[in-house]
Amino acid sequence: MEVVGAAAGVVALVETSLKISFLCAEYYSHVKNAKKEVDRFNQEVKAFINVLQDLDRLAQNPRAARLFASLDDNIKSCSLHLQHLQKKLEPGKNRKAMSRIRALKWPFENKELEKEIGELERYKSTFNVALGTNQTSLMFDFDDKMDSARLSKLLYADGANFDSHEWQHEPYCLPDTRVDILHQIMKWSADPCQKTIFWLNGMAGTGKSTIARTITRTLNEQNRLAANFFFSRGRGDLSHTVKQSLNMKTSISNLCAINGRSWFISPYRN
Predict the structure, then answer these.
(1) CA distance 147 to 240
(2) Number of Cβ atoms within 10 Å of the Cβ of 135
(3) Which among 164, 195, 267, 268 counts the fewest CB atoms within 10 Å?
(4) pLDDT digits (tens, 9 = 90+) for 178-204
(5) How many Cβ atoms sit within 10 Å of the Cβ of residue 108?
């Protein structure tokens, strides 16, 4: 799906959803025996509209073409579903018919209403995943025309990467050790619906940095690591955040594709 087509498709979804919300408001005003159900459905529609409006803003970015190509089928099927909902809610095709809405029943029985809300939730979740991927936001916000000469001028903290000379003698988790926590973090990293930050904390010397290095190495081996920065007290640029974002941007700009998640896992190393 080209970005122009994607933008038009999302705009159509927004327009149809707004019409559905308007119809729900009409039902709420005139149908007395289903106000709770009408209000609940309308709230779901409004929440869906918010997601669609965010998606519309993303569609304006020319770099979003690949992302929207993956959403093409979802946008088309969502459009058909919203048209079905609009048709079911419309009491007629002329404005005079709206005066008969008092004589109409709310068209959804409880089970059907739950099904329709579930469908909206499914589409909302799909679109939210696209919007919530930190790597996507970073890629779009960062100037992809920045060349190597310009990158070399950025302030960069040497030794921040997990596999740098600075950390060559630092340990990784031994085989069959820390199995549970490593499995928990890897499972989290592979689930786009999880929260963006996984915070690992504990007393000094309990192995937080070792776990962080092990996870980072594993993600790197799987080509799922966007960037990393290991802090260390008393080691110049590694002891503060001044150059952290620049390291991250430089690393990400050199990637052809980002399949992993943006994450911060471990506090300072002693």
Answers:
(1) 27
(2) 18
(3) 195
(4) 999 999 998 888 887 888 788 888 887
(5) 19
